[in-house]
Structure formats: structure tokens, C-alpha cells
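User: quick one, fold this
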Amino acid sequence: MIKFKDLLTEALSNSEIKNIASEVYPKIVNDLGGQAKPVEVHSSIWDRLGAVAADDLKREQGNPDAQYDPHDDIIYLYSEVTNTEEAIIRSLLHEHTHTLQDQVKFKQFYDEGATYQNHPFELEAQKAEENWKKYL
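Assistant:
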């Protein structure tokens, strides 16, 4: 069994991230409801997409912690950023919350001018992250 408390601030490998996700994510789904989604770990969104000049894109546009892709119905964790136990759990809570939300309304809020800082669904997902210690 993984001793999560020992991994709290230590950067983890992709396989360690997958192990933590496979242990924690079913508990999150059980608590929040909905259905478990596949979880994939990639170094960055840019590497996952096979972007040319990925390092330049990371500098210019950043690299998200994680992402829920409603079209493929997959949660992606990006290990260059999401590589501690806290970050993994927070990202899974955040992204699973998005799986429970109406994706048409999600897009509509952005189309109507919402930003990440004031989008109601993002605020709900950020609130879900606050319970991350429950999964240690």
C-alpha cells in the first residue's frame, strides 16, 4: 500500500501518479456520484497533443494541472504540474466535478463572457478541491 503522507510534497513519476489515481479516484466517485472516467497521465497537454515547439507553448500559454475532455470522456493529469499527492487528489476532485456538470451550460457560460475566476462551474470544482485531505 502506498504511504500517501510520505508523498505529500515529493514529485512523483507517472506510474506513481497512476497508482495514486487508481486508489483515490474510485473513492472520489463514490462520494461525489456519477461514473468513473478513464484517467490518463501525460507530461503536459502540449506533449499529449503532439504539439510542435511544446516547450515554447508551455512558456507562452502555460501547462494546466489537469483537464476533463467531455468529447473523449477522459480525465487527463499532467505530470509536469500535477506530481504531488495533494495536486493529484485536488485535480481528480476538480475534474470529476466537471464530469457531473452540464457541458452545454459549461460552454455557454464561457461563450457569455465568464472567466475561469468567475465561471460558476469552475467555482464549484474549486470548492470540491477543498476536501482533498479526506483522501489521504
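User: anything notable?
Assistant: DSSP finds six helices and three strands in the chain.
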